[in-house]
Amino acid sequence: MESLNYHFDHQTAKRIWRAGLRIVVYFFLILAVAGFLGILMIHIAALAGVTAPAVILKVVIPGVFVVWAPAVLVSNHLSKEFKQNHLWRATLRGCPKWMQKALWVVCGYGFLGTFLLPLLLGRNVDSYGSFTAGMSGFMMAFYAMAVCVLYSATRAEAFDRNRRCPNGHHVSPVSRFCEDCGSPVTDNASHVQQR
Question: Most-buried pick from 32, 38, 114, 165 (CB within 10 A)?
Fold first, then answer.
């Protein structure tokens, strides 16, 4: 009887721990979305030649570090059981495909734009507007990564539990083929509607 009480208490503690972690992840996800939208507005304003007030930059720029640290921890948790070459597939498995593609577009734009935007806009590379446009584009990539990783953490468990091949066999999160029957796992079969 004593072992049954321990098992119950251990299971209850696990549920409470998961619920607490979920609240923390959602909190940082909200901060990451707010930061992304803020830096996007600053970036659009910089492209239009409007300089954002310095106080906004003082909040949004350090904010990336506030959301980046939890995103890295969550990413490590999501990908800990997978090979290195499946790192991003494992980490982003809870995100819809459109969100994954949008992430890579934002990252490409952010990293290339940091260096190319001042040259393409024909502005002085040393000017504050060029710096703001380049830096905000770069930071958009980091905020977008944090948003996607944290969002994935909210959906990964359901994705893992519901992932099946066309024949109904359970399939691991990064498998392209069913381990039981060898059927290819298509995007339609692998990404189950999450409610």
Answer: 32
DSSP secondary structure code for residue 51 in this structure: P
For 164, the 3-state DSSP assignment is: strand
Consecutive H or E run containing 184: none
C-alpha 148/C-alpha 184 separation (Å) is 26
- 156 occurs within a structural domain: no
Segment 21-72, tens digit of pLDDT:
889 999 999 999 999 999 998 888 888 878 777 777 788 888 999 999 999 9
CA 184 vs. chain centroid, Å, equals 26
What are the C-alpha distances in Å from 82 to residues 3, 32, 73, 161?
A: 33, 26, 15, 16
Q: CA dihedral defined by 165, 171, 175, 177, rounded to 10 degrees?
A: -40
Nearest to 149 by CA among 72, 82, 43, 86: 72
**Alpha helix (H) residue ranges in 48-186:** 54-79, 87-91, 97-121, 128-162
Do you know the residue count of the chain? 195
Same domain, 27 and 64: yes
Within a domain: residue 158? no
CB 131 within 8 A of CB 139: no
* 135 & 52 share domain: yes
Range of the structural domain that residue 52 is part of: 2-151
In the chain, the number of structural domains is 2
Mean pLDDT of the chain: 78
